[in-house]
Amino acid sequence: MTLTAESRALDLAQDYLEAIRAGSLDAPGVTRASYGPGERLAHARAREAAEELGLEVRVDPIGTLFMTLPGEDRSLPAGMIGSHADSVPHGGNFDGAAGVAMGLAVAARLRHLGRRLPRDLTVLAIRAEEMVWFPANYLGSRAAFGILPREAPDTLRRSDTGRTLADHMAEEGFDPDFIRAGRASLAAERIAWFLEPHIEQGPELVEAGIPAAIVTGIRGSLRHRNCRAIGQDAHAGGAPRRSRRDAVIAAARLVAGLDAFWTAEEAAGTDLVCTIGEFFTDATRHAPTRVPGEVRFTLDIRSEDVAALARAEAWLAEAAAQAKARHGVTVDYGPALHVAPALMDARLRAALAEAAAAAGIPVLQMASGGGHDCATFAGQGIASAMLFIRNDGGSHNPQEAMEMGDFAAAFRIAAGAVKRFG
């Protein structure tokens, strides 16, 4: 039986995903550390697949893998598709890697059909996206564009080893001086568009029974990692309510108020999510018989809407003033990390929707709650889009469960859209 171009392309993608899973198993999941052996394996397997397809392959000084199917007019800016290949520790096999597999599959289909796009199509395998390894957003894609701080190789240390980014890059055969010098291997003017396929990291597609989604934008965020509610320790039996400066009561009221703010914004149709990831008293000071004088907590507020993030920031300031007035408790949110939203290109989104309709595949339109390298591309003024693939079990855990049938549906959308992107 003769295999079709589509089935051959999907077989390639499945073989790639199975090979990198087998090579990076770290029970109960997989581990592909940024600039570590698992990521190295994933890049090597992608390169092998690309070379078997006859794609042009090159690696830049920081390890970005470029796999190019030549187009009809090579002077035109290239279209790009891909994602990252690292994972969180003991994570799932599909976060990031499914996008690399999708890019290879789209290129393979074109190769097997003997077709060329008007411009080059470059499949990217990007380094070091998962922030769990090095404390920097989108490290690999920012480095490729030359916008990572020049001191990063010497100041960023990997979480599991304590060694610098420079050490790990050199160990993998790459050149940290590329970053120190502010050099770039990606230039916005040479990129026509970028598409990042990715598994969905939440439950919406599973709940809707739909295989894929077109991403409207990547949520920006307002983050405070070192929040403190500071009151005064007191005796649990001896201190009456009127004299207490109870940090737990004040902080709990703030959290409840934030939930009410979120509820109201959501009811008004605002895209918003709010998370208190940590909330604790000092274990060396707290006791059942002590009124707690300090609470530490974190805040992570995300939205596609810049105005919504501004309203949240204003609400936090007012909540701190109320905590002081009502409870005598000072709320210090500490430094703020602002990450701007990245809206996806309307023309590319329309092309994805047309491709889905032509293939008879239902899709959702939804925001991405997680950050992605696509935000770096959009931030450089490049027309960018994301395509989510249904994935049961969430993300960043061994329960990631993308079905190849859903991958195939998303592949048909991606392949059809790439032709329409021009």
TrEMBL record:
Its cofactor is Mn(2+). GO terms for molecular function: hydrolase activity. Its EC number is 3.5.-.-. Transmembrane segments: none annotated. It is an enzyme of class 3 (hydrolase). Homodimer. This is Hydantoinase/carbamoylase family amidase. It comes from Falsiroseomonas tokyonensis. The lineage of its organism: Bacteria, Pseudomonadati, Pseudomonadota, Alphaproteobacteria, Acetobacterales.
